[in-house]
């Protein structure tokens, strides 16, 4: 029996559901009814969207298909009229909607529910009879037909309002995925791009691929240079290495996106469900989720590491912290640099804000969700830039005041200027791309609505959706804008090469490739920072007080600050290649040798004389040679034994030759 009913319903053409090919409309008007099921009714015009929110008659016809057998078998005399009242309602005066009565709905449902069970069709929830007015009148009512159903006067029947964006059937997704596109749920953007054609997309992808390879090579070179000699880059410049590691991962993700094209960022085409390729959203796609986690985490971590780099420079330049003192805060630096991006990443995973980027092939946030772009990309980057630039400027001003107000040796002043220029150029190479990326995000944030409305205007007829009403401004993004954005997102990692690029790096790589390893002394930039005179002392000194240059415990292997605690003024020759490195015991021994041999010359304020052994000690007061050496001897006898036994050795640059240094070290140890 069910088979007979099915065959009968299929071969009966009287009430077959068919819709002619129609174009979508930019203004909603009374339009002729083209649904074959709803022909020969008391009215012949309808309006869209209908009472079930179908935006055109083609969509309404597809939604009516499950009721096809019941209408053909005439299970109820009221079913056809009830369905047409919902799917093709009568078009009356603007603003008036005629709803069918509840009694009409109830009769159709009661008389057809057995046949619907046979065909496996359930009564839809949006057709529940309780939603309609409680009345018992025929449809259409007499007052609904007074206006006249012929759509001759278009001006009086035109609906003057914008219905917004309606998600096309091709872009709809499963409701349980939680997708959202242009304010519509269960909808996703077309993939690979809604703004560019295939030729433009191909050019952008290859451009991103080339830039990602360059950035990956540069940042990987920086990291490998660090691995060759891990003692070379200590604080305050150590954060540059972690900064480079972050952009190794960022460039690697973009390179993988270039290789995989849209296989990660896009959902596949489903012709059986009339679905086109759409942008991936949420965390259901595991590969897209992994791409997002790596890309967003290391992008934010790289930005935080740059802020930490400015903090370490500030600590070394203004309060004159030594390398060991800054390194004691390394655990705190790592907790902040990895913890904050990790917390933001977990938050975005919980909020299900992941979006595929069909252009680059990666997954990120803020590509279509403007709120996510504003709070999770723009806000963190702007805060990091504000903090980093402030600390950077304070550090540069402090170093410049030291250079201008304190007379240094010509060689050391040249090194200080060179270091300031190096730090400034590195910061500019980082900040210029970062400001450009932020500017691109802000521009995209500002014009996104206009681009989307322009896309609707150009594709509404293709997707059979309502066209936007009274479009005043149309615009589409320029391809060069996206090229600049992707370029600067990757180029921002390349400045790390500037910091490690030097002759010393070339020598290290040559030695490494030939199997030789060479240990060097103190890093030049750190040495210049840490062996400048105390800035506070320069501002508070008396007019006739000699300038004291103190070591703040900034050697590369010690942790003590013995030289500053004894208040001895030791002027180190930073450029002398024959200068040796001694421990504290060696330092005291050399002082005793100075007393016995009377070979060193004491430098008074306003005079600088080189000693026979090359050291230039400065004393706090311009005393005679005998009294000065007497003070040194007295202080050495009382403190050297205690210092040697209690404190680890601190490396201090001393101007003696290698042989004299060993003899002085033996004397100091015996003392």
From TrEMBL:
<feature type="transmembrane region" description="Helical">
    <location>
        <begin position="478"/>
        <end position="500"/>
    </location>
</feature>
<feature type="transmembrane region" description="Helical">
    <location>
        <begin position="290"/>
        <end position="318"/>
    </location>
</feature>
<keyword id="KW-0812">Transmembrane</keyword>
<keyword id="KW-0472">Membrane</keyword>
<keyword id="KW-0879">Wnt signaling pathway</keyword>
<keyword id="KW-0807">Transducer</keyword>
<feature type="disulfide bond">
    <location>
        <begin position="38"/>
        <end position="84"/>
    </location>
</feature>
<dbReference type="GO" id="GO:0042813">
    <property type="term" value="F:Wnt receptor activity"/>
</dbReference>
<keyword id="KW-0325">Glycoprotein</keyword>
<dbReference type="InterPro" id="IPR015526">
    <property type="entry name" value="Frizzled/SFRP"/>
</dbReference>
<dbReference type="Pfam" id="PF01534">
    <property type="entry name" value="Frizzled"/>
</dbReference>
<feature type="disulfide bond">
    <location>
        <begin position="30"/>
        <end position="91"/>
    </location>
</feature>
<dbReference type="GO" id="GO:0007399">
    <property type="term" value="P:nervous system development"/>
</dbReference>
<comment type="similarity">
    <text>Belongs to the G-protein coupled receptor Fz/Smo family.</text>
</comment>
<dbReference type="GO" id="GO:0035567">
    <property type="term" value="P:non-canonical Wnt signaling pathway"/>
</dbReference>
<keyword id="KW-0524">Neurogenesis</keyword>
<keyword id="KW-0297">G-protein coupled receptor</keyword>
<keyword id="KW-0217">Developmental protein</keyword>
<dbReference type="GO" id="GO:0009653">
    <property type="term" value="P:anatomical structure morphogenesis"/>
</dbReference>
<feature type="domain" description="G-protein coupled receptors family 2 profile 2">
    <location>
        <begin position="201"/>
        <end position="508"/>
    </location>
</feature>
<keyword id="KW-0732">Signal</keyword>
<feature type="transmembrane region" description="Helical">
    <location>
        <begin position="419"/>
        <end position="444"/>
    </location>
</feature>
<dbReference type="InterPro" id="IPR020067">
    <property type="entry name" value="Frizzled_dom"/>
</dbReference>
<feature type="domain" description="FZ">
    <location>
        <begin position="25"/>
        <end position="138"/>
    </location>
</feature>
<dbReference type="GO" id="GO:0009986">
    <property type="term" value="C:cell surface"/>
</dbReference>
<protein>
    <recommendedName>
        <fullName>Frizzled-3</fullName>
    </recommendedName>
</protein>
<dbReference type="Pfam" id="PF01392">
    <property type="entry name" value="Fz"/>
</dbReference>
<dbReference type="InterPro" id="IPR036790">
    <property type="entry name" value="Frizzled_dom_sf"/>
</dbReference>
<dbReference type="GO" id="GO:0017147">
    <property type="term" value="F:Wnt-protein binding"/>
</dbReference>
<feature type="transmembrane region" description="Helical">
    <location>
        <begin position="240"/>
        <end position="260"/>
    </location>
</feature>
<keyword id="KW-1003">Cell membrane</keyword>
<feature type="compositionally biased region" description="Basic and acidic residues">
    <location>
        <begin position="632"/>
        <end position="645"/>
    </location>
</feature>
<dbReference type="InterPro" id="IPR017981">
    <property type="entry name" value="GPCR_2-like_7TM"/>
</dbReference>
<feature type="region of interest" description="Disordered">
    <location>
        <begin position="580"/>
        <end position="671"/>
    </location>
</feature>
<dbReference type="GO" id="GO:0004930">
    <property type="term" value="F:G protein-coupled receptor activity"/>
</dbReference>
<keyword id="KW-0675">Receptor</keyword>
<feature type="transmembrane region" description="Helical">
    <location>
        <begin position="372"/>
        <end position="399"/>
    </location>
</feature>
<keyword id="KW-1015">Disulfide bond</keyword>
<feature type="transmembrane region" description="Helical">
    <location>
        <begin position="203"/>
        <end position="228"/>
    </location>
</feature>
<keyword id="KW-1133">Transmembrane helix</keyword>
<feature type="transmembrane region" description="Helical">
    <location>
        <begin position="330"/>
        <end position="352"/>
    </location>
</feature>
<feature type="signal peptide">
    <location>
        <begin position="1"/>
        <end position="16"/>
    </location>
</feature>
């Amino acid at each position: 029996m069910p088979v007979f009913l099915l065959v009968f319903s299929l071969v009966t053409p009287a009430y077959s559901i068919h819709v002619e090919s129609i174009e979508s409309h930019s203004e909603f008007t009374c339009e002729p009814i083209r649904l074959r099921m709803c022909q020969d009714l008391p009215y012949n015009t309808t309006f869209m969207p209908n009472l079930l929110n179908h935006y055109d008659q083609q969509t309404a016809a597809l939604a009516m298909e499950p009721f096809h057998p019941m209408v053909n078998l005439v299970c109820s005399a009221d079913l056809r009229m009830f369905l047409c009242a919902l799917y093709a309602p009568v078009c009356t005066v603007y603003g008036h909607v005629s709803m069918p009565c509840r009694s009409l709905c109830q009769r159709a449902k009661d008389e057809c529910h057995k046949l619907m069970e046979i065909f496996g069709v359930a009564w839809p929830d949006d057709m529940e009879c309780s939603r309609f007015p409680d009345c018992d009148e025929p449809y259409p009512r007499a007052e609904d037909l007074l206006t006249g159903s012929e759509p001759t006067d278009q001006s009086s029947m035109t609906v003057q309002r914008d219905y917004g964006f309606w998600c096309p059937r091709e872009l709809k997704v499963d409701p349980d995925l939680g997708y959202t596109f242009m304010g519509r749920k269960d909808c996703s953007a077309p993939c690979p791009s809604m703004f560019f054609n295939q030729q433009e997309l191909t050019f952008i992808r290859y451009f991103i691929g080339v830039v990602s390879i360059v950035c990956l090579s540069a940042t990987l070179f920086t990291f490998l240079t660090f691995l060759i000699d891990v003692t070379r880059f200590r604080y305050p410049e150590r954060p540059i290495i972690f900064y480079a590691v972050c952009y190794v991962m960022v460039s690697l993700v973009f390179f993988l996106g270039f290789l995989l094209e849209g296989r990660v960022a896009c959902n596949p085409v489903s012709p059986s469900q009339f679905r086109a390729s759409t942008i991936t959203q949420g965390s259901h796609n595991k590969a897209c989720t992994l791409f997002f986690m790596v890309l967003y985490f290391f992008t934010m971590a790289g930005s935080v590491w740059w802020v930490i780099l400015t903090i370490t420079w500030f600590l070394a330049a203004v309060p004159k912290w030594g390398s060991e003192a800054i390194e004691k805060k390394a655990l705190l630096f790592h907790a902040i640099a990895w913890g904050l991006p990790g917390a933001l990443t977990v938050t975005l995973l919980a909020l299900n804000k992941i979006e595929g980027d069909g252009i680059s092939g990666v997954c990120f946030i803020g590509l279509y969700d403007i709120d996510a772009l504003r709070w999770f990309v723009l806000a963190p980057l702007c805060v990091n830039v504000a903090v980093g630039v402030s600390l950077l400027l304070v550090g540069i001003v402090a170093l410049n005041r030291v250079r201008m107000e304190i007379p240094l040796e010509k060689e050391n002043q040249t090194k200080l200027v060179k270091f300031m220029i190096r730090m400034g150029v590195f910061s500019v190479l980082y900040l210029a791309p970062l400001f450009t990326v932020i500017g691109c995000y802000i521009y995209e944030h500002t014009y996104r609505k206009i681009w989307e409305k322009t896309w609707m205007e150009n594709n509404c007829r293709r997707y059979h959706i309502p066209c936007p009403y009274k479009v005043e401004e149309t615009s589409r993004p320029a391809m060069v804008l996206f090229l600049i954005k992707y370029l600067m997102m990757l180029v921002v990692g390349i400045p790390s090469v500037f910091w490690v690029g030097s002759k010393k790096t070339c020598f290290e790589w040559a030695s490494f490739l030939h199997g030789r390893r060479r240990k060097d002394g103190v890093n030049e930039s750190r040495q210049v920072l840490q062996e400048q005179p105390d800035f506070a002392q320069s501002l508070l000194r008396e007019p006739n007080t000699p300038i004291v240059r103190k070591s703040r415990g900034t050697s590369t292997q010690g942790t003590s600050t013995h030289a500053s605690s004894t208040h001895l003024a030791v002027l180190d020759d930073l450029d002398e290649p024959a200068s040796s490195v001694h421990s504290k015991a060696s330092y005291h021994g050399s002082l005793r040798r100075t007393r016995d041999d009377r070979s060193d010359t004491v430098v008074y304020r306003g005079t600088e004389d080189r000693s026979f052994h090359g050291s230039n000690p400065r004393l706090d007061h311009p005393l005679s040679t005998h009294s000065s050496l007497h003070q040194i001897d007295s202080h050495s006898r009382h403190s050297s034994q205690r210092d040697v036994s209690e404190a680890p050795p601190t490396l201090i640059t001393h101007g003696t030759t290698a042989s004299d240094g060993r003899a002085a070290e033996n004397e100091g140890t015996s003392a």
